[in-house]
C-alpha cells in the first residue's frame, strides 16, 4: 500500500480536501466546498503589465486532495492560468489535482471535417490530461466521440443534468411538449421526456454555417394545447433555438420555453432568443442571469467520488 494511504488506513483520518477557484469561479467553488466538507483555498492570480499571468498559492495544499473549479466557456483566456494553478498545486505537494469544468470546451470540434483542420477535442483532452489527475464535467457535447474515456487519459465523469432539468420542467410547466431543435439534441430530449413521462419530438436542422441555420420537418399532428419546451445542451449563437422557435410558432403553438444546460450565449444570442421565447432557462454550469437549474449536488457527488478513488501505487504527494 502507498505510504500515505497506509497512514490514512491506520489512523482513520479523512484526507484533507481543498477547493481552488480559477478567476470568476469563486461562487461555484464556495457552493461546492460545503457538501464536500472542503477548505476554500486562496490564491493570488493576476496579470503583469505585459499581459503575462502570475499565479501564487496562498493556502498550503501539501498532502491534500485538490479540486480546481474552472468552467471553460471562452476557454482561450482561461486555460493558461488554469494550467499554472494546476502546476502550482502539484509543486505544492498535493496528492492529486482534479479539474471541475462544468462546461468543457472544444468538445464540438470532435472530428476533421475539411483538410487542414484538427480534431481539437482530442488535443485539448491531451493537454488537460497532462496536468490533471481527474476531470468532472457536466453533459459534454458527446456526438462523434462516444465517451470521455475515449479521449481523456485520466478518470473522467460526465454529470448528467437531465434529472435536475426534468424536475424543473415538472415544477414549472403544465402539459409540456419537449422539443429537440435537431437530431443532436435527441439524447437529452428523450431522456428528460422519459423522466417527465412527457410527450416529445425532434426537429430537423440544416446548418449552412455557424450563423445560418434552417429548421424543418415539424410533426403537424402535435397537439396545440401543449406548452412547447425547446431543449438542447448548449446555446451558443442561439440561431438553432431561434429557428426552432419560429417553426413552432408557424405550426400554431405558443411561444416556447427554451431550456439548455450550458449558457454560452455568444454576442447578442440571449437578447435575440428572449425576443422569440416565453422564457430562457439554463443550468448553472456557466454563470448567467438565465440560470435557474442548480447542479451543485450532483457535481459535488461526482467530485467526492474522485476524491475517494484509491491513490495510485506511485505516490502523487510529490513536487513535480
What does this structure look like?
- By secondary structure, this protein is an alpha/beta fold.
- It is 30% helix and 25% strand.
- Strand 1 (17-21), helix 2 and strand 2 (39-40) form a beta-alpha-beta unit.
- The chain is globular and about 60 Å long.
Q: Please report the total strand number as a whole number.
A: 16
Would you tell me the structural class of the helices and strands? alpha/beta
Gyration radius, in Å? 21 Å
Strand content: 25-35%
Give the biggest beta sheet.
6 strands, parallel
Overall spatial form: globular
- First-residue to last-residue Cα separation: 21 Å
Oligomeric state of this protein: single chain
Q: Low-confidence parts, pLDDT < 50 over ≥5 residues?
A: 1-12, 208-214, 315-320
Spatial ordering of strands, largest sheet = 2-1-5-6-7-8
Short descriptors:
16 strands; alpha/beta; six-stranded parallel β-sheet; globular; disordered N terminus; 320 residues
Quick overview:
The protein is an alpha/beta fold and 320 residues long. The protein contains nine helices and 16 strands.
Topology:
Layout: H1 3-11, E1 17-21, H2 26-36, E2 39-40, E3 43-47, E4 53-57, E5 65-69, H3 79-91, E6 96-101, H4 120-131, E7 134-138, E8 156-159, H5 162-172, E9 176-180, H6 186-196, E10 199-202, E11 204-209, E12 212-216, E13 227-235, H7 239-250, E14 257-263, H8 269-274, E15 279-283, E16 291-293, H9 296-307
Parallel strand pairs: 1-2, 1-5, 5-6, 6-7, 7-8, 9-10, 9-13, 13-14, 14-15, 15-16
Antiparallel strand pairs: 3-4, 11-12
Helix pairs in contact: 2-9, 5-6
